[in-house]
């Protein structure tokens, strides 16, 4: 790239980061995945009441929200529900925050019910929500961590399911989708072994608006669809 073009690109990036334009992903490049078991520091509330002592409270959480596609699709469908995206990668979280801010500028009075924070959900999720606070918990295209020694990094495990059961209200729902068949079987077996969840019937799944968004709302899902890939969608209800 010529020096003039490079300077222009840098200026455009700075302008977008200041909220003057809709953000573009090329200014927020980052690695595809991050190690959730690393010792990265995150400022987190000591307890949920410290973070949000007043009502109304967040009811939907998109864990590993990526570039925020699901949040943005859900926002107008559930305008009275507060939702948060939780993302471990700093540049991606920054992109989602700028994207939401831009949508609020372009659509006055809309998208006020969604937000994004950078955190390590695998370590700190219970610091943000009270028991039974959540109605919907989303895990879209999580990192498969293929190597056997890295399976402990997977976001669906028996120990973490205990946390999700604690945070979900009775009748609340947990949504998962992946394009990796081995990971789909892993998640299915782990949830089946936990007594607090049951899979939705096909009739319930067809009637669930949020479930219908899992495949194409996220950028990762759109990429899978463009490549004619297969996905495995599983939704569970908290007993």
Provide structural commentary.
One of its GO terms (cellular component) is tRNA methyltransferase complex. S-adenosyl-L-methionine binds at residues 64, 87-88, 120-121, 140, 218-220. Residues 1-36 are annotated as: Disordered. The chain is of the alpha/beta class and 239 residues long. It has one domain (49-238): Rossmann fold (3-Layer(aba) Sandwich), CATH 3.40.50.150. Helices cover 36% and strands 19% of the residues. It has helices at residues 3-17, 48-51, 69-77, 90-106, 121-124, 158-167, 181-192, 202-207, 219-226, and strands at residues 58-63, 82-87, 114-118, 134-140, 168-178, 197-199, 232-238. It has a seven-stranded mixed beta sheet with strand order 3-2-1-4-5-7-6, sandwiched between helices. Strand 1 (58-63), helix 3 and strand 2 (82-87) form a beta-alpha-beta unit.
Key features of this structure:
239 residues, single chain, alpha/beta, Rossmann fold, 36% helix
Topology at a glance:
Elements: H1 3-17, H2 48-51, E1 58-63, H3 69-77, E2 82-87, H4 90-106, E3 114-118, H5 121-124, E4 134-140, H6 158-167, E5 168-178, H7 181-192, E6 197-199, H8 202-207, H9 219-226, E7 232-238
Parallel strand pairs: 1-2, 1-4, 2-3, 4-5
Antiparallel strand pairs: 5-7, 6-7
Organism: Apatococcus lobatus
Main location: nucleus
Function: Catalyzes the formation of N(7)-methylguanine at position 46 (m7G46) in tRNA.
Which percent range fits the helix content? 25-40%
Query: Given the structure, what is the number of helices?
Result: 9
Main CATH class: Alpha Beta
Structural class comes to: alpha/beta
**Silhouette:** globular
- Secondary-structure element string: HHEHEHEHEHEHEHHE
Poorly predicted runs are 1-11
Q: How much is the radius of gyration in Å? A: 18 Å
Total beta strand runs: 7
Overall number of domains: 1
Q: Give the N-to-C terminal Cα separation.
A: 57 Å
Work out the strand percent. Answer: 15-25%
CATH topology: Rossmann fold
CATH level-two architecture: 3-Layer(aba) Sandwich
Adjacency order of strands in the biggest sheet? 3-2-1-4-5-7-6
């Amino acid at each position: 790239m010529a020096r003039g073009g490079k300077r222009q690109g840098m200026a455009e990036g700075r302008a977008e980061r200041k909220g003057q334009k809709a953000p573009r992903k090329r200014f927020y490049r980052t690695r595809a995945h991050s190690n959730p078991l690393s010792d990265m520091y995150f400022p987190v509330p000591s307890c949920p009441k410290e973070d949000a002592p007043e009502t109304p409270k967040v009811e939907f959480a998109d864990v590993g929200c990526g570039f925020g596609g699901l949040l943005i699709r859900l926002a107008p469908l559930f305008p009275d529900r507060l939702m948060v995206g939780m993302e471990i990668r700093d540049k991606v979280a920054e992109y989602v925050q700028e994207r939401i801010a831009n949508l609020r500028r372009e659509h006055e009075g809309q998208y006020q019910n969604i937000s994004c924070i950078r955190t390590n959900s695998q370590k700190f999720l219970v610091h943000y929500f009270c028991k039974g606070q959540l109605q919907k918990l989303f895990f879209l295209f999580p990192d498969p961590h293929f190597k056997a020694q890295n399976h402990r990094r997977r976001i669906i495990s028996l120990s973490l399911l205990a946390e999700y059961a604690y945070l979900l209200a009775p009748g609340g729902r947990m949504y998962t989708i992946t394009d990796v068949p081995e990971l789909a079987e892993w998640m299915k077996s782990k949830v089946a072994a936990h007594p607090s969840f049951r899979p939705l019937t096909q009739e319930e799944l067809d009637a669930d608006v949020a479930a219908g968004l899992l495949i194409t709302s996220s950028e990762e899902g759109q990429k899978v669809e463009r490549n004619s890939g297969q996905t495995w969608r599983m939704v569970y209800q908290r007993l």
